[in-house]
Amino acid sequence: MAKTLVLAEKPSVGRELARVLGCRQGGNGYLSGGQYIVTWALGHLVELAEPEAYGEQYKTWSMDTLPMLPEKMELKVIPETSKQYSVVKKLLHSPEVGSLVIATDAGREGELVARWILEKAGFHKPVKRLWISSQTDRAIREGFANLKDGKAYYNLYMSAQSRAEADWLVGLNVTRALTCKFNAQLSAGRVQTPTLALLVQREEEIRRFVPKDYYTVRADLGNFFVTWHNGKNQTAISDKEKADAIAEKIREKKFRITEVKKTFGSTPPPMLYDLTELQRDANKLYQYSPKQTLNIMQRLYETHKALTYPRTDSRYLTADLVPTLPERLRAVNHGEFGPIVGEIFRTRKSISHACVNNAKVTDHHAIIPTEEQVNLLSLNQEERRIYTLVVKRFLTCFYPSYDFKKIRVELTAEGESFSAAGREIIELGWKKVEKGIEEDEEEAAEQVLPNLRQGDSFVCKNIQLKAQKTAPPARYTEATLLSAMENPSKFIEDKKMKEYIGGGLGTPATRADIIEKLFSSFYVEKRGNSLVPTSKGMQLIGLVPPDLKEPLLTARWEQRLEGISQGKENRGAFIKEIKGYATALVKTVASSEATYVHENMTQKICPECGKHLLMVNTKKGKMLVCQDRECGYRRNVVTETRVRCPNCHKFMELFGEGDNKTFACRCGFRSKADKFFESREKRSSASKRDVQQYLRNQNQKKDPGVSAFAAAWAKSLEAAKKKGSE
């Protein structure tokens, strides 16, 4: 009897599938059982070939060979993972195998991982699809009991391949054009460039901003404060003399309440998490980067089986999941969640109807706990924090709205108007579970007011005259940039195209990599928690063709790609249009009269080519890189470490290389690295905190992989640098 081959995306997932399916016989890159053979990829095993594969002329980066428009896009086996590809290919063609189950991640990218392997290997046997949203034993068994026909996902594959090819055609052509034209390591892409443009636009607004002085007048009435306002309820006073006059006019005068207005307010529980919302909150609360949060979520999904599939853009559940919710509640009924779950069961609360909507779930539902109980002691601090966020958000959806009365008190004194705002809580509702990431501005400005009635009077005890300046727009953080990427429709004027912006710039699965790419390309640097475009990033936005930096491009592409996934659009026509677009972009760059200037050049000389080195800021310190795109030399200068100073216990920086590595702290402490560790070794062996920190660092190094285009792009640049013939 022929066996069924199961293809997973990663070894860890493959081994879990094998365990559930009873495949215990070990092999080289696979596990075998009576009915199934389980093997795995290592992320992508196959990718789009680099330009060099289409001819010798593309080995040298030159404007003369652009645009690069292959008649048919070729696939290549990734050299680093070719051994595992050979294992998978041999199994695919084994006489023992009669059919295949695609068990890669249930999404567009996962479909691409598997289909490219099958296409490269020339596989033509029957194909089924495993489509599940959690990695629990129960989910796996149910998934295999309800396998889908592989043909049902072929259009999804065509859509994914079209996106990958379009990114190759536009990204690599424009990158080579910019790099050759301006002799600098410049890159551009459909998602990366408009994302960078958002940061540059905000930076330009900040630079143009001229602050203005204004004043506010507050009166202390003993039990509460009141604020002056004009007839339009504006509290800012631009004229200092006027502010001073009002302050003097009401000093020690009597205030009388003219109106006490109470209005009912209600805030429903926040929706369940999708990946982007979770990344936003993790950045606000813990300063985790989007990439870091995604990696933590992958571990909670794959290793701990605690949470459902992370790479989702939906914040809703389907109706068929509702009967499983009691079991999921029981799974989290421990620790700090115990009293909350107990109340949910005791009062027979059900999940909010607003959270259940089949029409708003695409590939995957919102992120929620699985039916499997987790030992919290097995989670590290990062995992526990993210797990807690998801569980609390899940539990809030079983609670009613937060209801309150808004109280606004109007007062007069010496003909001037004042007001105070507060609120009276009627029903705490979901706020019993989650206080929220931050209060809104209105709630933060409110105060606890005494029992007040119209006609009551108070004497002014003190005056607060505060001088302030208008503030410029805030720089983006990774959290607010994710919001802008998710919903860039305000940057699109065409109303018909707004609806096709869909999930925005990139997908929940790719946005983290896009932001990381901005850092690694030295287009953006971090100051505190703020993202600031570098001179290189600012200049790039001035050099790229105008429509490449507009979100509208993504809107147009999403419209076509959505049609391809539904079988309504012709893939060939879409790629033909993209080739024409890539050609036009290259011509625009070639005809540009702009110039690029290295504003971060140092007096240090590159040891390999003799040119001046550039100083760049990375997320982990400072680095010297060669300005010549054909050289590619780089050296770390300063690295921010997690090693604490023995004097002030703050994190230190590491300078130099080799035997000259030196720790330095802002408090003045300095020590050669080898002597520092020798000294610490003598003082004590590794503390529990050191061990935990080491393990956390190791976890953070685990990377689920990047997109095929990102890998091809990076390898193309790297290969060119090594050969010195970009």
From TrEMBL:
It catalyses: ATP-independent breakage of single-stranded DNA, followed by passage and rejoining. Residues 153-586 form the Topo IA-type catalytic domain. Residues 680-691 have a biased composition (Basic and acidic residues). Its EC number is 5.6.2.1. Residues 187-192 are annotated as: Interaction with DNA. The active site is at residue 309. The keyword tRNA processing does not apply. Residues 3-136 form the Toprim domain. Its cofactor is Mg(2+). Keywords: DNA-binding, Isomerase, Magnesium, Metal-binding, Topoisomerase. Pfam families: Topoisom_bac (PF01131), Toprim (PF01751). InterPro entries: Topo_IA, Topo_IA_2, Topo_IA_AS, Topo_IA_cen, Topo_IA_cen_sub1, Topo_IA_cen_sub2, Topo_IA_cen_sub3, Topo_IA_core_domain. It comes from the Bacteria. Residues 680-706 are annotated as: Disordered. The record marks 61, 168, 176, 311 as: Interaction with DNA. The keyword Isomerase applies. Mg(2+) binds at residues 9, 105. Belongs to the type IA topoisomerase family. Releases the supercoiling and torsional tension of DNA, which is introduced during the DNA replication and transcription, by transiently cleaving and rejoining one strand of the DNA duplex. Introduces a single-strand break via transesterification at a target site in duplex DNA. The scissile phosphodiester is attacked by the catalytic tyrosine of the enzyme, resulting in the formation of a DNA-(5'-phosphotyrosyl)-enzyme intermediate and the expulsion of a 3'-OH DNA strand. The free DNA strand then undergoes passage around the unbroken strand, thus removing DNA supercoils. This is DNA topoisomerase 3. It comes from Anaeromassilibacillus senegalensis. The gene is topB.
